[in-house]
Amino acid sequence: MTSGGGREAQLKHTGLRPGWTTGACATAATTAAYTALLTGEFPDPVTITLPKGQTPSFALTAESLAGGSAMAAVVKDAGDDPDVTHGAVIRSTVRLLPPGSGVVFRAGEGVGTVTLPGLPLDVGEPAINPVPRQLMREHVAEVAARHGGGGDVEITVSVDHGAEIARSTWNPRIGILGGLSILGTTGVVVPYSCSAWIDSIRRGVDVARAGGLTHVAGCTGSTSERTVSTLYDLPEIALLDMGDFAGAVLKYVRRHPVDRLTICGGFAKLSKLAAGHLDLHSARSQVDKAFLADLARAGGASESLAAEITGANTGLAALRLCEAAGVPLGDLVAARARDEALTVLRGAPVAVDVVCVDRAGTVVGRSAVAGPGKLSGA
Q1: Do 128 and 157 touch, CB atoms closer than 8 A?
Q2: ∠23-40-69 over CA atoms, to 5°?
Q3: Who's near 91: CB < 8 A, 6+ residues apart?
Q4: Are 267 and 330 in contact (CB under 8 A)?
Q5: Are the CB atoms for 309 and 234 separated by under 8 Å?
Q6: Percent of the chain whose predicted confidence (pLDDT) is above 90
Q7: Are 12 and 64 in contact (CB under 8 A)?
Q8: Residue-range domains of the chain with CATH
Q9: In the predicted model, is pLDDT for residue 142 greater than 90?
Q10: DSSP tag of 360
Q11: CB contact at 8 A, 293 and 287
Q12: pLDDT tens digits, residue range 241-276?
């Protein structure tokens, strides 16, 4: 797979290799298949134009032409991004339709179907997002103009082993069943932007709101999910797999409010939120033991205990020191993390509480619920 200049420019600035979204791959496969229908030949590699002007080229990994339909396939290259769809085979089967039919999209094997409201597609539609649909329509029109076609086609997108891959995504939780979504707004996967994860967080909020839920929980992992489910008896669609992206949850909920947001996660991760970090990944933020020592002092810790906290190996070790001394560091971290969350929410009508857990899921810190303008205090 090769590309135009945009990719090389990104390489120069980041040292990481960008990749292509499933939507870009589906567009390339569709362009090749429709071209073959009109000309009898598959362009290989096939070049497409992305929304920001890049012109990547994709090698075909499979092709077939029979009667009124053609199939082309490309392998998704996610570049240096840890994307679960890296290496997946994206296929597009294009079939000619009667004049006036327009472009019709179908979900093939491994592509999901929307079953819950709240997504940018109607219930019953194939999980091919609006931007990839538009990109495919534009390329179908270009191919039709170039080769004398009518542009009336059925496009069936499939992904080899897509149903299996989708189990590692949010799709089942937000009501996309049977496979993956065909995603992408720019066509480019920026390494470690985790755009698909953040998009899933947003869709999770949308589905919860559309389902009439007023209480959702942003959780850092499966352990915190189990804990918050036990505490509040929330349905699965209320549980947002926040991971390290606290900022993504807060910023989206700021624009799309729910009555109540609970943030639940490991003590060390939430101590980072308490210190003002919105990305909780260990490569991008660290536990600040001096900050924890200051919080502990405010909670009654002696100077000798504060010194021990500053020198502790881990955040959890600092917590255990405070537990032994009767200092409620967990509650103090939860309250400060809640206040940081409210600051990011900027007065949005959302009440927030924070629950800190240890590795076993035991609650080690908890804040009171507070809304806009009501900060501080555990």
Answers
A1: yes
A2: 55
A3: 29, 62, 71, 72, 73, 108, 157, 158, 159, 160
A4: yes
A5: no
A6: 73
A7: no
A8: 5-189 (3.30.2110.10), 213-366 (no CATH)
A9: yes
A10: T
A11: no
A12: 898 899 999 999 999 999 999 999 999 999 999 999
